[in-house]
Amino acid sequence: MSSSSSSSSSTPITEVVIFPLKSGQNKIHDAGSHEGGVVKEALTKVRAQEGCENVFYGIERENEDTMWWFVEWKSLEYHKKFGQAAEHAPFLTSLSTILSGRPTVYDATITPHPSTSILSGAPLTEIVHFFVDPSAADSAKSNSNLTEFMKVMTSVDCNQDPAHFTGHGGGWTVQSVDKQSIAREREGKEGQMLKAYVCLAGWGSYEDHMKSSGTKEVSEAMPLLFGLEGASGICAVHVKFRLFEG
Asked: pTM here?
């Protein structure tokens, strides 16, 4: 996967890849299945690249024909270097045998880095995209609203047993992203290029997330999110991630 953008050469980057799988090709953790073999080979190749620190992968709860990867790189330059490498084209050709379309790829400055406790360290990870007009991304007002909302979430969730909540993380996308390629049928117009704040939360279960979302504190804090500068929608999904270890 490759992408074009600008970011500090010393800033750790998380590459996010959303793969639309062919119907029924979602047994990615079964080494004996065709898709399991293809995915393992691809993950092995990515993990071996210079500058690659971790690869997390899993199937989306809301659409089981969607696979997500979070690839942690030492910097954006290392991600770009792989995109220009000779083995990149064969890598994509192999993966294409289990895909129903082109993957969506973008980079984000997600913290904490690494995000192990929120991704593979949680039984279920909530991924929320807060879309905004590119001119409003990373603005003081938006960052203030997001910080205040996270404080509320943390104050509520830290009262739970650690088995039910493993933490929050997040960051802005480096590139503008096609809202519809992420939200798919949920909402958005094809070709609508926006920036997004990518928020992650690690949960013990889907029920744990619903319990937290239903609290008075979180409900009263929701206007902070809808009040983001240039707000243009929200998309939320859940994925059960694994850390690829070869």
From this structure: 0.91
Phi/psi of residue 242, each to 5°?
A: -125, 150
Could you tell me the two tokens for 95?
């993966």
Q: Assign 208 to helix, strand or coil.
A: helix
DSSP strand pairing (193-203 vs 165-172) = antiparallel
- Write down the residue that tokens 């800033």 correspond to: 11
Per-residue pLDDT tens over the stretch 73-124:
999 999 999 988 877 788 888 899 999 999 999 999 999 999 999 999 999 9
**From the centroid of its chain, how far is CA 80?**
18
Q: How far apart are CA 28 and CA 35, in angstroms?
A: 6
- Read off the pLDDT of residues 137-178 as tens digits, 9 standing for 90 and up: 989 999 999 999 888 877 776 555 666 788 889 999 999 999
Cis peptide before 114 (omega within 30 of 0): yes
User: Are the C-beta atoms of 233 and 183 separated by less than 8 Å?
Assistant: yes
d(CA 80, CA 56): 19
The answer to whether the CB of 107 falls within 8 A of the CB of 13 is yes
Q: Are 57 and 67 in contact (CB under 8 A)?
A: yes
Q: Evaluate whether 181 touches 104 at the Cβ level (below 8 Å).
A: yes
Query: Is residue 117 packed enough to be buried (19+ CB in 10 Å), middle (13-18) or exposed (0-12)?
Result: middle
Q: Which amino acid is at 192?
A: Q
Token pair belonging to 169: 């993380």
Tokens of 215: 């609290």
